[in-house]
Amino acid sequence: MTKSNEPIYVTKPVLPPLEEFLPYLQQIWDSRILTNGGSFHQQLEQALCEYLGVKYISLFTNGTIGLVTALQALRITGEVITTPYSFVATAHSLLWNGIKPVFVDIDPDTLNLDPAKIEAAITPSTTAILAVHVYGHPCAVDAIQKIADNYNLRVIYDAAHAFGVQYHSGSLLNHGDLSVLSFHATKVFNTFEGGAIVSPDAKTKQRIDHLKNFGFVDEVTVVAPGINGKMSEFNAALGLLQLKGIDAAMQQRKVIDARYRKAFDNVQGIRCFSAVHEDVANYAYFPILVQPGYPLSRDELYRKLREHNIFARRYFYPLISDFPMYRGLPSAAQSNLRVASQAAKEVLCLPIYPGLTDEQLDSVIGLITG
Ligand code: T4K
Question: What are the boundaries of each domain within the chain?
Answer without folding.
Answer: 18-244, 246-369
